[in-house]
Design brief:
single chain; alpha/beta; Rossmann fold; Hypothetical Protein Yjia, Chain: A,domain 2; 2 domains; 7-stranded parallel β-sheet; 5-stranded antiparallel β-sheet; 12 strands; 24% strand
Length: 309
C-alpha cells in the first residue's frame, strides 16, 4: 500500500515546526514518520519536533531542493523498509527551499507509486505584511500549496489578517486557506481518508535557476549564557538576521534548557526538556543574507553572553 507524503513548506520563521509538532501530538494513532530539513550544520528543528512521530530523520547542512536531493530520496527508501511501515510521511522543508524542485523529484514514477505526494501545506505568517508575498521564493512556496495555514494569527490584528488572506487568494485561488492558531490544522485537510487512492501527478512548473541568498552561521558554547547579555546580543544582531533559533542553558536558571526563536524581528524564549548527553550547553543557528554577517562579528558578539568560568 502506498505511503502518502505531506510536504510542509514556508519561509524562514513562518511557523512550520509549530504546525508539525501539533500535527504529531494529535496523530490519533497514525504512524507518522517525519523528515526535517534544516539549512545549517545544526538541525535545531529536528530537536524541537515532538516525540509523537514514528521516528525523526534529520537532513542538515543543505537544502533538499538542491544539495540534499539524493539524501531525501534515499531517506524515503529507508523509511519504507521500516517494520512496521509508516502510514504517512511528513517532510518539513527548510525555509529557503523551493517546493517546485522537491515536487519535481517526487514525481519520479517509482517514488510516486510508493510514496505519492498527497498534500503540500504552506505555512504563512499572518502578522507579516502582504508585501512579503513579493519575494520570488515565497511566491513559489505559495503557488505549490494545496492548503495555506496562517500562523501567528494571534499576533496579527483583524485587518492585517484579512489583507494577508486576500493577497494569498489572489496568488493561489485554488488553495484552502485556514487559520492555524498555535499550529492547529484539521487533520482531514492534510491526510487522505483513503490511503489506497494514489493522487494525480502534479506539474511542478519550470525549473528556476538556483539562487544562493542566505547563509547559516552556527555558534556553540559549553558555558551557560547570561540571559540579559543574550538579549543585548540578539538586539545588536537583529538588523542583520533573517532568522535565529537555538537551545541553551542560562546562568540564572542552570539545568533548565531554553529555546530561542527569532523571526520577523521578534525574539521569543520558552522552556525545553533536557538535551541529549554530550552536546554543547548552547547551540544557536543564525541565518542571514549572504555577506551581511561575518563569523568573526557573530562570535565577538555572542562570546559576551557566555559565563566566565
Amino acid at each position: 500500500m502506498p505511503v502518502p507524503i505531506l510536504l510542509v513548506t514556508g519561509f524562514l520563521g513562518a511557523g512550520k515546526t509549530t504546525v508539525v509538532n501539533h500535527l504529531l501530538a494529535h496523530a490519533d494513532g497514525r504512524r507518522i514518520a517525519t523528515v526535517v530539513n534544516d539549512f545549517g550544520a545544526i538541525n535545531i528543528d529536528a530537536e524541537l519536533i515532538a516525540g509523537a512521530s514514528d521516528g525523526v530523520v534529520s537532513l542538515s547542512n543543505g537544502c533538499i531542493c538542491c544539495s540534499l536531493e539524493g539524501d531525501l530520496l534515499r531517506t524515503l527508501s529507508t523509511l519504507l523498509r521500516r517494520d512496521p511501515r509508516p502510514e504517512y510521511i511528513v517532510i518539513e522543508t527548510s525555509g529557503v527551499a523551493d517546493p517546485a524542485d522537491i515536487v519535481r523529484n517526487l514525481m519520479d514514477p517509482v517514488i510516486l507509486r510508493e510514496t505519492p505526494l498527497e498534500t503540500v501545506l504552506c505555512v504563512m505568517d499572518a502578522s507579516a505584511s502582504p508585501a512579503a508575498l513579493d519575494d520570488a521564493l515565497v511566491r513559489s512556496q505559495l503557488r505549490a500549496a494545496d492548503v495555506v495555514a496562517l500562523s501567528k494569527i494571534d499576533l496579527a490584528d483583524e485587518g492585517a489578517g484579512a489583507r494577508m488572506r486576500e493577497a494569498i487568494r489572489a496568488l493561489r485561488s485554488p488553495a484552502v486557506v485556514v487559520d492555524a492558531l498555535h499550529g492547529e490544522i484539521p487533520s482531514a485537510l492534510l491526510f487522505p481518508a483513503d490511503v489506497a487512492r494514489a493522487p494525480a501527478p502534479r506539474e511542478p512548473g519550470p525549473r528556476r535557476p538556483a539562487e544562493e541568498r542566505f547563509e547559516t552561521l552556527s555558534w556553540t558554547s559549553d558555558q551557560p549564557l547570561s540571559l540579559p547579555r543574550l538579549q543585548q546580543a540578539i538586539n545588536r544582531l537583529a538588523p542583520k538576521l533573517a532568522r535565529a533559533k537555538g537551545l541553551f542553558e542560562t546562568v540564572e536558571q542552570p539545568g533548565r534548557p531554553m529555546v530561542l526563536q527569532f523571526a520577523a524581528g521578534r525574539a521569543t524564549l520558552a522552556p525545553r526538556q533536557a538535551p541529549a548527553a554530550g552536546v554543547p550547553r548552547a547551540r544557536i543557528v543564525f541565518i542571514a543574507e549572504l555577506g551581511v554577517l561575518s563569523k568573526a562579528e557573530l562570535d565577538a558578539i555572542m562570546e559576551t553572553c557566555a559565563a566566565r568560568g
